[in-house]
Design brief:
heterodimer; A: alpha+beta; Rossmann fold; OB fold (Dihydrolipoamide Acetyltransferase, E2P); six-stranded mixed β-sheet; B: mainly alpha; MetI-like fold; globular
């Protein structure tokens, strides 16, 4: 079991409020990603759950039990650090088995469990090597092995893939997701990369300035962002925001349209006319950055190849069903 | 062309380094040579460098006049004991200051260092009187205690700097893995700090071995270490350079050998963190 509930959790370092009252319900077995720009408090929130920081106020419940006064070791959670944080003087075997040794398990049982974990992560040939003799991806797998071997109630991941190169990151992303589904253990994963968040999560928590902006499934966040911040943060390339007449006509202060929901018309009549400033041809997609005069720069995405170039006049027509409306304070208007 | 210039530069700096090394070592070499001369040759001007009558007579005299082993044993006990106790106190102290610093940690560190700024002679009279009252004069325990206190600030400072270099994440990982503070110290922190611990231990051992002010003032015979043994040869009835040199050579030999064999560890520890 690994159900985690946050109730009014606050954290302040002196006069600085890092977490301003977080409420959250994380279901057993789900994969939850904390995402947000740097300094939004996502790592702090994770460390509060881990017990590496003390809460200033509020309650953290793990399987219904308040753990704010329980030391990290006794919370039954395991953590994978951004820097891997492997013990440099121990072999891979020693690293993975350290938690079990601390728990006082018998030697052969530790060996059996370590070897099983190593087999899952393809680390068997490296069991007797030291961390410095491993590549970045292998070190990352050792850190994950150390986390899974203890059969914790939940895994906490603190930006674990940010030190890997792009190709390895994609591969590890899939491995981590697969492993989590296979084990069925609750996971909380911190990242600033919204692609990681969208691809890995069952549910995403979007944080900004120490506040939870929205909590929901990736598609909920994509389709029904609660406010301007979430709308701008989730989705790549970013959502286009338009103010002024087009917004007022639709009864909103700001409207937002995602690049993939703008239809590109060549004749330049109707919709929002503009001139192409930059055209990116990826083969699979074409991205157009269009200078739309008073509406500012707009981004449009076309699936497939579109032979348009810098300086061409186009007209962008928003899909009426996919226009997001926001009020003066930036909150979504639902109707 | 460039290669030749590089080779020449390397050659010049190599010669310069050897020259500096020789200059620094020269007094010790001179002392060692003098210990094999007769008293007359040790005084001779101009001095003979290698071509003199080599003799072991001084060593025989020194051994006959005073008990080298007794003093050497005292040195081992005093230097070793004070170093071990200092480490036992300094490891947890440096640990807490490096990993759970408070607002006052810097002040505490500076205050400890400030105790080294005062010349020891400033507190000689009170310490002497205290030692006399409690009966610690000329006792090994008394010397262990005072040398331990004297070197403690340096030991704590050194360990503090080494501990600071250990990534916090690793200690937190240990905490998540269920290690108590004690086990964290034993299984994670100490093994990672071994190069630093080793060089601190060696340096402190050398400092304590060579310490002369307190050992000369607070001991006479019973607890007297090798420093007192050397000093007993600079007698008022005349200078016996050859014998003094023999005594000095005997006194520094153990620590010199230790330093020679541990130089790799010592250098690695002293540059810990500087080259990472």
């Amino acid at each position: 079991m690994g159900q985690i509930t946050l109730q009014g959790v606050q954290k302040a370092f002196g006069p600085v409020h890092i977490i301003k009252g977080a409420n959250l319900d994380i279901a057993d077995g789900s994969f939850v990603v904390f995402v947000g720009p740097s300094g939004c408090g996502k790592t702090t929130l994770l460390r509060l759950i881990a017990g590496l920081e003390d809460v200033t106020d509020g309650r953290i419940l793990i399987d219904g039990k308040n753990v704010v006064a329980v030391p990290p070791a006794k919370r039954g959670l395991s953590m994978v650090f951004q820097s891997y944080a492997l013990y440099p003087h121990m072999s891979v075997r020693g690293n993975i088995g350290f938690g079990l040794k601390m728990a006082g398990l018998a030697k052969d049982e530790i060996n059996r469990k370590v070897e099983a974990a190593a087999a899952t992560l393809n680390l068997t040939p490296y069991l007797d090597r030291k961390p410095r003799e491993l590549s970045g991806g292998q070190r990352q797998r050792v850190a994950i092995g150390r986390a899974i071997v203890r059969e914790p109630k939940a895994f906490l991941f603190d930006e674990p893939l940010s030190n890997l190169d792009a190709a390895l990151r994609v591969q590890m992303r899939i491995e981590v997701t697969r492993l989590q589904k296979q084990l069925g253990t609750t996971a909380i994963y911190v990242t600033h990369d919204q692609v990681e968040a969208m691809t890995m999560a069952d549910k995403i928590v979007v944080l900004n300035g120490g506040k939870i902006e929205q909590y929901g499934s990736p598609l909920e966040l994509y389709e029904k962002p609660a406010n301007l911040f979430v709308a701008g943060f989730i989705g790549s390339p970013k959502m286009n925001f338009v103010t002024g007449d087009p917004a007022l006509q639709r009864g909103a202060a700001t409207i937002g349209v995602r690049p993939e929901h703008l239809k590109i018309e060549r004749d330049g009549a109707g919709g929002w006319p503009g001139t192409i400033a930059v055209a990116e041809h990826l083969g699979s997609d074409t991205f157009l950055y269009v200078d739309a005069g008073p509406l500012g720069m707009l981004t449009a995405r076309y699936i497939g190849e579109l032979s348009l170039h810098t300086g061409d006049r186009v007209s962008l027509v928003p899909d009426p069903a996919r226009i997001h409306r926001f009020d003066d304070s930036g909150n979504a208007i639902r109707s | 062309m460039a290669r030749m210039a590089t080779t020449r530069r390397v050659a010049v700096s190599t010669i310069a380094a050897w020259l500096c090394g020789f200059l620094i070592f020269f007094p010790i070499l001179w002392m060692m040579l003098a210990s094999f001369k007769t008293e007359l040759e040790a005084f001779a001007i101009p001095p003979s460098f290698l071509f003199f009558h080599w003799t072991l007579e001084n060593y025989a005299t020194v051994q006959a006049r005073s008990d080298y082993l007794h003093h050497a044993l005292n040195s081992i006990i005093i230097a070793g004991g004070s170093t071990l106790i200092a480490l036992l106190i300094a490891i947890p102290a440096a640990w807490s200051m490096a990993f759970s610093p408070t607002k006052r940690t810097k002040d505490v560190l500076l205050w400890m260092l400030s105790t080294k700024m005062m010349p020891p002679v400033g507190v000689l009279v009170p310490i002497y009187l205290i030692y006399k009252t409690v009966g610690l004069l000329d006792s090994r325990i008394g010397l262990v205690f005072i040398l331990c206190l004297g070197n403690l600030p340096i030991v704590i400072w050194m360990l503090f700097t080494y501990f600071k270099e250990i990534p916090r994440d690793i200690l937190e990982a240990a905490r998540m893995d269920g290690a108590t503070i004690g086990r964290e110290l034993v299984y994670v922190l100490t093994p990672m700090a071994i190069p630093g611990l080793a060089s601190t231990l060696l340096l402190n051992l050398i400092l304590a071995w060579n310490e002369a002010f307190w050992t000369l003032n607070l001991s006479t015979s019973q607890a007297a270490p090798l420093t007192v043994f050397i000093a007993s040869y600079s007698s008022p009835e005349g200078l016996f350079w050859a014998k003094l040199s023999a005594a000095s050579t005997l006194a520094i030999a153990p620590i010199l050998v230790l330093g020679w064999f541990s130089q790799k560890q010592l250098v690695r520890g002293l540059t810990f963190g500087a080259v990472k």
